[in-house]
Description:
The chain is of the alpha+beta class. It folds into two domains: 2-50 and 241-380, no CATH class; 64-227, no CATH class. 58% of the residues lie in helices and 19% in strands. The chain has 16 helices and ten strands. The chain has helices at residues 2-14, 16-53, 73-78, 113-120, 122-125, 141-147, 178-183, 189-196, 214-222, 234-237, 239-277, 279-287, 292-328, 344-361, 363-370, 374-380, and strands spanning 58-62, 84-99, 102-111, 126-129, 136-140, 154-159, 164-173, 184-188, 203-208, 229-233. Strands 2-3-8-5-7-6 form a six-stranded mixed barrel. Helix 11 runs parallel beside helix 15 and helix 13 packs antiparallel against helix 15. It is elongated and about 105 Å long.
Amino acid sequence: MRLPFKIANRFLWSNKGQTLLIALGIAIGVAVQIFIGSLITGLQDSLINKTVGNSPQIKITSDDKYFDLDSTSLDEIKSIDTNITSVSYALDIPALISKDSKNNSVLLRGLDLDRADKIYNIKSRIIDGKPFWGDRVNIGKDLAKELNVAVGDKINIRTSDGKLKEFLIEGIYDFKVANLNKSWILINISTLQEFTKQNKISSIEIKTKDIFLADKVADNIKNAIDKNLKVINWKEENEELLSGLKGQSTSSIMIQVFVLIAVVLGIASVLAITVLQKSKQIGILKAMGIKDRQASYIFLFQGLILGILGGILGSALGLGLLYSFSKFAVNPDGTPVVEVSIKYSFIAFSAFVAILSAGAASLIPAIKSSKLNPIEVIKNG
């Protein structure tokens, strides 16, 4: 095995320009794989996080709109599945908010701050003031702008059944979703229950560790809770989003496969020509006693060496492309247009696939070299 490796190494570096050109071709293929794969993954992660990541992936509701909550049921629900990370509850009451002569339809969201913060990250989304507590509320920045109010101002809130109360604005939040910023008013759930004389809740909200397993977790919850309650997961409500993500993944895989095919064909064709170029040397080596299997190993080693060189160069080039993209493709505020997802396991996998592909591409010239007849090669050389 040592002799074929030494010969393969000498053959490669006897024509450095050709060797570097092949390695660069493999490197470009690996870099394209890494760049496209990481970009698509980052785009999907960003899309999922913006639409689903900072909201409950599972909700428990009732056809009766409101239902009772046992004081221990939240902990019981959390113990149903190890994929459940956070459980909270909410009371949603439609209302009308008025300030001076302006009126807006809103949704009063009664929450337990500590529990809800683990799902919505409320505390980190407060852009002015503090999170809600007691009789004080949080409103969205779009609603605050529309009503021309600020932290410390008072607003009147009237429910659909005519109950009216004045609340102080403790803080202004930004969920990065205009519809929520205009309609949600966050308030302590016990305060809202006391205000509306409604001692029930409207939903239990659940966050999962792996959001793509939310449907399986939801099935486990269904089997463990009251059959009169409904369990809804985000996949049921976002079928179009899931379809789009699958389309992105499929297109990414197809591009990577065609890049691999191009790399394999390129290596196979170049090494096949190398067999012709080096046929006289192979014939002489066979005449000196080298076996057919050893002759084939020469080209297998050539393919593997080229694959390793291309894989290393491609990994470095791919990381460079991702870094450049994250620095130059930015929004006006300096944040990346797409949060690139760099997974070193994927980079290592791409390099490994390139090495395997290079090895596979060398099989044809390896078989061809093993069939060379030394007498005919030397006679015709």
